[in-house]
Amino acid sequence: MTIIIAILVIGVIGLTFGALLGYASVRFKVEGDPLAEQLDALLPQTQCGQCGYPGCKPYAEAVANGEAINKCAPGGDDTIKKIADLMGVEVQPLDGNHETDNTPKVAFIIEEDCIGCTKCIQACPVDAIIGATKQMHTVIIDECTGCDLCVAPCPVDCIEMRPISQTTRNWQWDLNTIPVVQIDEVQIDATPQGKEV
Amino acid sequence: MESVIERIEKGHFWKFHGGIHPPEMKFLTTNKPILQLPMPAELVIPIQQHIGEAGEVIVNIGDAVVKGQALTRSTLPISVPVHAPTSGKISAIEKATIAHPSGLEELCIKLIPDGEDTWRERTICPEYKQLSKSDIIEKISNAGISGMGGAGFPTHIKVSTNAQINYLIINASECEPYITADDLLIREHSSAILDGINILDHLLEPAFILIGIEDNKPEAIQALKNATKDSDKIKVCVLPTQYPVGGEKQLIMALTGTEVPSGVLPTTLGIVMQNIATCFAIADAVIHDTPLIKRVVTVSGQALEKPQNVWALLGTPVEFLLQECGYPQQEKKHIVMGGPMMGFSLPNSQVPIVKTTNCILAPSEQEIPNDNQEVECIRCGQCAEVCPSQLLPQELQWSAKAKDHQQLNTLNLFDCIECGACAYVCPSHIPLVHYYRISKAEIRQQNLLDIKAEKAKVRFEARKLRLEREKLAREEKHKKAAEARKARMNSGTPEANNEKSAVAAALARVKAKKAQASSESTSSTEDSNIAPATEKNPQVAAAIARAKAKKLAAKNRQDTPESQTTENQTSESEESTVKPDIVDDKKAKIAAAVAKAKAKKLATTNKSDETSSTSSEKPKDISPADAKKAKIAAAVAKAKAKKQQADKTKEIEATSDDNVQTSIKDEVAKGDIPDKKARIAAAVAKAKAKKQQAESK
Fold it and tell me: What are the distances in angstroms from CA B494 to CA A29, B168, B497, B660?
């Protein structure tokens, strides 16, 4: 009799929790893949396709499903480190097939050479090139992600990638290029007191 | 509110957290009047001297300008113009090193003074109270006034607030060592400053005006008290000397006991703060119609023979000021712009004075020994004791070194006012503020990149959606067209029957073509194909011809030179499409592009097709020599083309690409657009070079 009661109790508990879990899975269903979303947020969104996927989101989804984490060339080591942190895996060096030079660049159209073929417009993943058939094209620098995809299709090779120049606005307080000096007050006392300059 | 004023009247003030007492060193310059300088040989005026956006240059090189003439203009709200500090000629508009710690170059206007110092027309307006508030604000904006205390925030934005203002605080504390510019300005021009304060009073209508001044400037305090003795509204508040009481949040705390929360503007608390030098500039601008073209600069330091305050025109090179104050000629110069606590070392002495420059410091070797030995943090906690923003400098330092941006935000890095008090007391000589500045720049950059990435993502998604939509629309259109055709054909009219028979004929042709293709009689294929093709759209015909030509070329490579065949084929097709009356340069360009594209495509097909590469006419190895040869050929062709164009001959021998040649010939015959022709020639040469490369592969 006790055994039957025990089985019944266990059974009821099991059913209850089963029902709870079932309800929760319906009630708190998450649309989409949260991991892929998080990975997508880490990627630089250049949409360059160097990873072999058509854009950053597809690569994020692939990484979520077990693709190698070291294929994002524009993101470089920083992005790999962030992905490794998120995925809880070892940091890997950047895939050897990719260029390691990831200085920020933007496309530039040599306008006098442009024949207006619109091939680059079709190639641009973020619609950062404007122009029309047989009209000169130009790049909206603020929107260009520097993905390089417009360079190859150009029949007259009039697109080049130019590094973004350093201005006072994006200067990074590089200590090596300016002298860091401490002003010392001789008048105070023997112990030198550093001052910020 | 009453209690605040009562406390102030009793001379009781609040205390802000931390603070230090560095040696003041103000005695070097306090005992001499402000010196009027002779005119420098050249003025360098950076077009951006304030926080916000730079204006657009409205003068040209060689223009003669008069004193006070605006040199830039902007429609953006957070922007002020710069003005010509004297009359003269614009000698250059180019990049030059500006007053910025990076020593980077930005766009500057260079002005050679003519010595006349001719003013533009000015309208003196002593009765400013007659003007509307918006007129006054416009005057302030047009005069190019931005905060002269250091940050350089455009003043007209600060004063055009609609909020109810309790306290207008005039910052005259000038707490940094060495600097006495405001002190001297108050002593010599207290009535003009009072005018400026009254204008601000008129604009903002505050309940009280508090002038915060440190107790180490007795003469200035007396001058202010004399000037304001008729006004009950204006209180001169003499604060105990302590660095950095001149910081905005620190001065508000000291005077009103209100702590400005992180990320909140003082305006929301009913407080507006203006620098005392800004008040002087406002009075000049509104009453005397004088834009901001000069300011008082303290030129100090023990390396100078006669350190003193000077009236410097904006754009005066620092070198000129140093010469005037007796700077000894020496090899290694070390000059600091701004005070010793918050200033920065200059990369060279040609940097110009700007609106925010209050001090030029030329310290002697004893004042700055170069044994900057940073050692490990010993966790003494002195930095946290002196931090006026109540941050944890040593924690910040570790996080900054580890580049832990999240932790830095948690520790409120952006509330750091970079006063340098922590670095000053640090027994380990850690340049703390520099670490914070680097981290701030990195975080700002990262935020910008994040915004850009987000934008790129949105644009990418939008583009994908658009392509999807277009594809659907196209399919829909094709479906509709097919249906319409079917309906028409089945309607039974004579036209429908005709069409039906046409379809049947086409089907028959396709069958015939297939049969021919299997029997591999290439020449007959070409004939039978071109015939129906020409009936269609000539462009389609051309495309088909091209495709065929390529196929043919691949097949006939053993018998005939490949390039010739291709080009002959294309030239045929091109000619069929070209109507002589609409021959124009664009077509030539397109032709060149087509040729190039073809060459590219050929190259790829050759690469993929092993047999064709082995049976290639030129069985050479892929060597750099080939590539070089091709390039040389291209260059020769280009040169020849140019020569011919110059001679205006009608025959072009250099190019073997027939179709492009034809169009070029047409143009030569026309005898116009010579530069375009040259470009076409170049493109042709390029295309040929590419083709040759491809072939050799």
Answer: 63, 93, 5, 45
